[in-house]
UniProtKB/TrEMBL annotation:
It comes from the Eukaryota. One of its GO terms (biological process) is calcineurin-mediated signaling. Belongs to the PPP phosphatase family. One of its GO terms (molecular function) is calmodulin-dependent protein phosphatase activity. Residues 121-126 form the Serine/threonine specific protein phosphatases domain. This is Serine/threonine-protein phosphatase. It comes from Hirondellea gigas. It is an enzyme of class 3 (hydrolase).
Length: 194
C-alpha cells in the first residue's frame, strides 16, 4: 500500500521517520501528495541554509550513497542513531542504485526532524544532466511521475555546496572550481541549478 496521511505525519507536522523507514524497507511507496509535501518541506529548510555550513564535532561524515537504501540503513546503524548523532552527507544520493527515491525520502525526513543535526551537501549527481543520463529520472517516472522528479530537483538546487568542521576541515563532494580560491568565495556563491 502507499503510505501517507496521518500514518506518515506526526501532530507536529513532521514525518514519522521510523514509520517511513519501516515502510520503505519493505519497498513501499508514498502517496504522491505526501511525497511532494516531504520534498517541499526539506527544500524550505535547505533554502534557509548558507552555501557554506559551519559545523563542529562530534559529527559523522558520509560519502556517496547512490540509491543504495539498504546500505544507507546499515551506515546509520553503524554511525549512530540520527535522533542523537550529528550527520553530514556529502552528496550523490541518487543514480546507479535502484532505491534513490527511498534514499531521498528518508534523508529528507531525517533533515525535517533534525534540521540542526542532519546536513546534506550537493553532489554532482544532484543535477538534471546526470540524474537524467543515469537512472534517477527513470526511477521517479517508474515509481511516481516526472512532477516528483522536478520537485526533487528543485530541492537539490537549494542544497549547500560545502561545509567546514571545527574551522579546520573543508568538506565538499568532489572538489571545487579552480575559480574559487578562498572559503569566503564559497560562502558568497549563490545556489545554482545545473
Amino acid at each position: 500500500y502507499q503510505l501517507g496521511g496521518e500514518k506518515l505525519w506526526k501532530e507536529s507536522g513532521k514525518p514519522d521517520a521510523e514509520v517511513l523507514r519501516s515502510h520503505l524497507k519493505l519497498e513501499g511507496r508514498l502517496q504522491f501528495d505526501d511525497a511532494v509535501s516531504l520534498v517541499r518541506k526539506a527544500a524550505a529548510l535547505f533554502r534557509k541554509e548558507p552555501n557554506l555550513l559551519k559545523l563542529y564535532d562530534p559529527i559523522t561524515v558520509c560519502g556517496d550513497i547512490h540509491g543504495q537504501f539498504y546500505d544507507l540503513l546499515r551506515l546509520l546503524d553503524a554511525g549512530g542513531d540520527p535522533k542523537s548523532t550529528q550527520y553530514l552527507f556529502l552528496g550523490d544520493y541518487v543514480d546507479r542504485g535502484c532505491f534513490s527515491c527511498e534514499v531521498v525520502f528518508y534523508l529528507f525526513a531525517l533533515k525535517i526532524n533534525r534540521p540542526k543535526g542532519v546536513f546534506m551537501l550537493r553532489g554532482n549527481h544532484e543535477c538534471r544532466h546526470l540524474s537524467a543520463f543515469f537512472n534517477f529520472k527513470d526511477e521517479c517516472n517508474d515509481k511516481y511521475n516526472e512532477q516528483l522528479y522536478d520537485e526533487i530537483m528543485i530541492a537539490f538546487d537549494s542544497l549547500p555546496l560545502a561545509a567546514t568542521i571545527n574551522k579546520k576541515f573543508l568538506c565538499v563532494h568532489g572538489g571545487i572550481s579552480p575559480d574559487i580560491g578562498t572559503v569566503r568565495q564559497l560562502s558568497l556563491a549563490k545556489h545554482l541549478a545545473c
